[in-house]
UniProtKB/TrEMBL annotation:
<dbReference type="GO" id="GO:0008897">
    <property type="term" value="F:holo-[acyl-carrier-protein] synthase activity"/>
</dbReference>
<dbReference type="Pfam" id="PF01648">
    <property type="entry name" value="ACPS"/>
</dbReference>
<dbReference type="InterPro" id="IPR004568">
    <property type="entry name" value="Ppantetheine-prot_Trfase_dom"/>
</dbReference>
<dbReference type="InterPro" id="IPR008278">
    <property type="entry name" value="4-PPantetheinyl_Trfase_dom"/>
</dbReference>
<keyword id="KW-0963">Cytoplasm</keyword>
<keyword id="KW-0808">Transferase</keyword>
<feature type="binding site">
    <location>
        <position position="54"/>
    </location>
    <ligand>
        <name>Mg(2+)</name>
    </ligand>
</feature>
<comment type="similarity">
    <text>Belongs to the P-Pant transferase superfamily. AcpS family.</text>
</comment>
<dbReference type="InterPro" id="IPR037143">
    <property type="entry name" value="4-PPantetheinyl_Trfase_dom_sf"/>
</dbReference>
<feature type="binding site">
    <location>
        <position position="8"/>
    </location>
    <ligand>
        <name>Mg(2+)</name>
    </ligand>
</feature>
<keyword id="KW-0275">Fatty acid biosynthesis</keyword>
<keyword id="KW-0276">Fatty acid metabolism</keyword>
<keyword id="KW-0444">Lipid biosynthesis</keyword>
<protein>
    <recommendedName>
        <fullName>Holo-[acyl-carrier-protein] synthase</fullName>
        <ecNumber>2.7.8.7</ecNumber>
    </recommendedName>
</protein>
<dbReference type="InterPro" id="IPR002582">
    <property type="entry name" value="ACPS"/>
</dbReference>
<keyword id="KW-0460">Magnesium</keyword>
<comment type="function">
    <text>Transfers the 4'-phosphopantetheine moiety from coenzyme A to a Ser of acyl-carrier-protein.</text>
</comment>
Length: 129
């Protein structure tokens, strides 16, 4: 079985301290329109999603660069749970690693947001690989 995990911790103030002149450009570069809409300008929510993106890039073993921020999307599920959607090169890399199922967890304090992701899939050569 293929198993990958990633974790990331973000200071929420990191987003709060962004220069107002570049904040909106940064947010539009990192987050999809749906992510921005669902967050409704809540910086703790955005910090959590930022942490998910970093954690996913770590689980994919490549970091941000070979894949872009917007190729990793965190949506709100029917019960409010985070759901991961991969696009483009992120989805291609996950497929190459045989990662088909993802679990995402996000937590916050007043000052920190943390995310952990776990991805599973059959090993190369197993059924469906």
């Amino acid at each position: 079985m293929a198993l990958q995990c990633g974790v990331d911790l973000v200071e929420i103030q990191r987003l709060e301290r962004l220069d107002p002149q570049i904040r909106q450009r940064f947010l539009r570069r990192v987050f999809t329109p749906l992510e921005l809409e669902e967050a409704n300008e809540d910086l703790a929510v955005l910090a959590g999603r930022f942490a998910v993106k970093e954690a996913v890039a770590k689980a994919l073993g490549c970091g941000i660069g070979p894949i872009s921020w917007q190729e990793i999307e965190v949506r709100r599920g029917p019960e409010g749970q985070p759901l991961l959607h991969l696009h483009g090169r992120a989805a291609e890399r996950a497929a190459a690693l045989h990662l088909r199922e993802w679990s995402v967890s996000i937590t916050h304090t007043r000052t920190l947001a943390m995310a952990m992701v776990v991805a599973l899939g059959p090993s190369e050569g197993e059924n469906g690989a």
